[in-house]
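Checked the freezer inventory, then went back to the computational side. Two predictions to log before the end of the day. The first one is the construct we discussed on Monday; recording sequence and tokens without edits.
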Amino acid sequence: MKKIHLLYIVCALSAASLYSCDDFLNRDPQNKQTNDTFWVNETSLRTYAQDFYSTYYTGYGIDYTIFGGYFSGDDFTDDFLTLSGGTRNFPLSPTAGINATTSPWWSNTTGYSIVYKANVMLEKIPGMNISDEAKAHWTGIARYFRAMTYSAMTKIYGGVPYIDSVTDPADSPTLYKDRDPYLFVAQKILEDYQYALANVRTDDTKRQVNKYVVGAYMSRDMLYHATWLKYHGTTVGPNSDDVAEADLKALFQGAIDGAEVVMAGPFAIGNDYNAIFASDDLAGNREVIFYREYTTGLQGNALMSYNADFTQEQGGVTENVIESFLCSDGLPIGQSPLYEGADDPSIKNSFKNRDPRLYVTIVDSLRILYGGLSTIGLSPTGYPPKKFLNEQWLADGSPFTRNNQSPADAPTIRFAEVLLNYAEARYEISKVGGNAFTQADLDRSINLIRGRKLLKWGENPQVERTMPAMTLSGNNISVGGTVINDPARDNTVDAVLWEIRRERRVELLMEGRRGEDLRRWAKYEYLNSEDENGNPDKTFLGAYVKLSDYPGLITGETGVHLFNPADPTNPEPEEGYIWHLNQKNVRVFKKGELDSERYYLRSIPATQITMYKDNGYTLTQNPGWE
């Protein structure tokens, strides 16, 4: 077990002295810090900055709700069938059930309180009696967290009022300024990240933000904003304008710069994928850049128990993402001769000869919610995840696999994501005036990930498996001399970019990234519950089941519903994909129509718009929410 690390903040007490009455009346209070007496040294700054950490590094959470963004905590996606409170109905996206009346406002969350806190820190640092190096470092820390905050708000609302100094409460024009354009805010976020990347220390003690953490989050956030602005323009709807290539290029370069700092650091891809997500201590794991620590007896998390013992009523992995995993020869299932699930795509066939990450991410046996075959680890899609499960703890009957007792540390950002951010940003920048995308870019990013040697749980004898390297072949990707020609590819996405996005999808499955990816790529059409023929899309379907293989499986109204694409009108087929919801028109997104496109941004609350108006100012609403 990890050692218990406790952070003690020691306050030095000065010896008591005698003062006259005048001295006493003119002194600051002696039993508490004031804004002027607090800013003394680096200990003061470190103490002040700790509040930022709890906001942005939530890890796995501490209950059974959203698991800090992991597992079911991602946005509604095509990877995971998310069920609202165990019911069989849910909207298109997290914003679909929110309107101008009910939408939360950033001032009601931590957003602007964190901005204010960062701005206070930036105001106080220049007058402190510390070294220039220390001033630069802590200024970088404040600007890093300010960038993180504006980035988080912009992902939700688009443009927001940008304030970069401590505001006088009487300064109404600043307090009631309208939203700045998305591009302007993204450029300011980039400036803060650039300063932090250049000035934050390479090492500033355990679990404190350092240069590598800055670079990692910079690669994530700048890639998000660059791609969002590329694929949406300045906003959503008919009034959106294209963003100049030079502006996009600068944002993509920011993502690349952040990634390259990390890539030059001490990180590496290891050979134990599950150890990243189910280990007692991530301190020595070279794949992990930053993590949230959990400790036995102090604070644990519930994510592992939800994967081990409990019925997963919050949702399950979809057939759509299972089919996105390549075969072991590096080819898609619709192209590879190794795929054995063409005629019978049940788990026992479709899981053969696949990307080894499938075996360490999803349990290769059927466990169906409401099927009556088992009582633990059940999924509404039949696919229980294995990614967050410590196999040894489960085999030993450890209490860590039950309730909120797991001490498994949570990676908040890891090396593989940075490599994927780099690959995507390098490809995207090549389309807006940057240098050409090359084989070297693949070799120093995705091909490093594919070199990971993985073992399949429970297999005897144990066999190490890797994935073949990707080779750039003109405007395509090839593996082993065969050009990938995926029949499932979205034809609006370049073939190379499609494979980069696929790699991202399978590597980061259930890590809270897919929802953001679909938003920034403007691909909410992937979320539709029906395909072009009006049949349930595989985003809404689970594992393929033959009733003859599972005697006793409960079907019908209180049990498992199946859908057979070969017999689509049969309400009670003998085989088919699990169709948990058994409903039509659950999610409908119409690309190009404002009533659908508006969901890429959240509504600005009517109460805030009214408050601005009552004070003589204007707060602009997002398109489609007027």
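The second is the one RB wanted added to the comparison set:
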Amino acid sequence: MSNTYAGDVEIDLGTVFRLVFRKLPLLILFGIAAAAGVYYLLSSADPVYRAETTLLIETGETDLTRNTDAATTAALLDQQGVASQVQLIRSRDVAIAVIEQLGLEANPDFDPALKEPGLVDRLMGMVGLGDDGPAAPVEEVVLADFMSRLSVNPITDTRVIAIAFEAGDPRLAADIANAIAAQYIAQQREVQRVATAVATDWLQTEIDALSARVVAAEEAVETFRADNNLFLTGQNAAVTITAQRLADASAELARVRTTRAEAEAKAALIRTTLDEGGALTALDILNSPVVANLREQEVAIRGQIAEASATLMPGHPQIRALNAQLADIAEAVRAEARNVLAGLETEAQLARNYEAQLAATEDELRAAAAVSNQAEVQLRALEREATAERDLLETYLALAREAVSRQNANFLPVNVRVVSPAAPALEPSYPKPIPMSIIAALLVMMLGAAIVLVRELASGRATRPALIARPAPLIVQPAAAPVVAAPPLQPVVPGDEPAPWSEGGDIRRMMPRDPGIDAVAAQVEQALGGMAAHIRSAGARRVLITMTPSALAGGRPLAAVALARALSRTGARVLLVDLHGDEADRMAMGEAGNLPGFGDLFAGEASFAQVIFRDRISPAHFIPAGRRRRLSDMMDGGRMATLVAALDHTYDHVVYDIGSEMLPLLGPGAGMAVVVTDREPGDPETTRGFDAVRAVSEAEVMVLVAEAPAAEQAGAAA
């Protein structure tokens, strides 16, 4: 059987290589010619030299002069900051300044008008094809040529910028690259100088205005202080006079109250002693000079009494006289105590009067202090304003002094420095005759080979009939053996014993009786045995059985039953799943009707144990279609995949007897597919059945051809 389709072609690589190899000498000749031409043109071209200088973007300040914040420095050194510096280097101002500095307008290398016209230009001018249009300004022409030769690029992952320039003179290329870097740095320094000068002028203007505002603010503070009597006193001039007087009055009042209380306490003690007749031992009494003198006299008299008592009786006039003197002294002491008491009471009264005066004075000072405190609130606001103006003025003065010192010292740091200046190149960067000639030769040869290939493909000499990319189908075609019976199918009666042979006997039970059926059945059994052996050797776990419409026209074939039994004879665990609704597989395998099956399992109304049955004449198991047979209910891919996966893990081979509508669900995971047809293998209907499986599955496809029985063929011929 052929394994090609009519009209399909593919490229014959062997033929292509042979055709290209035959043309190889000619392709090499063209390549050599192209290389020679390119080498001649490049050798006669003016050389171009490339010079490069590199700049490093960094902060130009030192630790002593740095006054920029971290955010400004980060913005300068990040990727966007470096890219901005690249654009500044490529600016028009830098280019014009370098052109004027080096006099490039008078250099013929930059102004084509200064060059002698070449042969081609003279010939074109003679025939009127010269460039007679309006000439652009020389400055613009030179600037455009200058910018086309300039290349400014940042080096990846660094803050280094490479400035490259190309020119016909290596020294000129290096001078221009260095001049661009120097001009860029000079412009950066000029920008710093102008910015510093502008800032200095602005600061001076602000300083003048701030000075006047500071003077006015300080005058307002002092005027308000004088108007509200808020003069300061004390050691640090931090307290107002009113507050100081109030503090002094409060301290004096406390002292007077203490003195008055002390005098009253002493007077009360002496009064109590006099009233009770006790000993006058109060300190104020003892400290009195009069009392001290009387005490001395008392001591002397007591001494005399003691001497006289030694020789005289108590009633002696001398002793009585001395005792009388003691009584007079005691009365004199008490009189002096009363004098001390009177003095203390007078002192207490004076203290009370003074206390009253101080209390009145304190009240007056408190009222004055309250008014003074309210005025101090306004005074502090004026002082804060004056302080803020003064601080701002001092800040501006410091900045102005720094700016003036930088200008005077000519210290204007820039944020870039030259890392490596450009040097004259020793070899031209363009042209490279040898490498470019080799590349030209290879390109010409590749183009020639492509032209040869296209021409041969267009002529058809480099193509051949296309083979099917996937494995060719295995064709099983018994000589004249029907795989199924012609309709009508006769039901199998449960319990009826089959014929002694397995495969043909079962098929024969489903067929009308025919004299040559035994020989036919033997051929069928042999063919299916070979197919089962192929499936077994391939290890195909999931096997699909589908049929062409013509094979179904006269009744569904029972090829799935026969194949399942043939597989079971190899010792494998085999399960047949019937997804048709005609009960033919169930009757062939010998079970009663109205059994639960795959439809009930899919719906969740039955378990695996309830739907799996055993074939009565082979070790194969089968699942009938079941009571719920609507295929539309089984289009849930997730549920179907779960059930199919469970069966694949349980059995060695699972044979699915299906129609074409179930191919999209079961085809992707199938290992083998069998297309049953009653037509020739090359028939369009057989091809459509084959392609239907190929469209949804990578499985190997076998075609089982069932020819019509001899009796039917004879009847059809009659």
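For RB: The radius of gyration is 64 Å. Residues 317-409 form the longest helix (93 residues). Let me know if you want it refolded.
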